Fold this protein.
Amino acid sequence: MWNARYDRPDYLFGRDPAAFLVAQAGHIPDASRVLVVADGEGRNSVHLAGLGHEVTAFDAAPNAVDKARKLAAEKGVAVDFHEADIFAWDWAAAPVDAVVAIFIQFMGPGPRAEVFAGLDAALKPGGVLLLHGYAPRQVGYGTGGPPAEANMYELEMLRAAFPGYAVLHAADYDAEIDEGPGHSGRSGLIDFVARKPG
């Protein structure tokens, strides 16, 4: 499905990083090792590499990864891109200083719990998680994301999913976004930035 969605000459979610990442990337210490999860066409990983981080990113869609490599080359940055399924990624293989997961809401609560456990496993003690997505009301807006409220985030659910984390920033808000044809218009958004204990 995703390979077909990315099979287009333009960038489905645009070439610029998510506004959330631009606003919250300062929580990531300088020159960090960062993992960007299900990064699609590379807009967020390329931005982080441009800030001086050592970035690894993966996505399951091969044509998205190809476009991500092209974007990185155009921007003159290096990102370690991988074609990989989110459920097959070896989270604990090389723990990182920060994990970035933006709009990864293509899964319901059961698989999501597995992935959230992976995000935790990927982080070093004291590492920072930057998680961004849609609130349940987004389904009614219809401006991006799956038509399934169960896939969406609520702040209390995220706090419960990452117990012991020190919350650095949390917000539930509406905003007009323009992130390519895939995300455009009034959107119900959730920000969650938190530091792993240890």
Summary: The chain has one domain: 2-195. The mean pLDDT is 92.
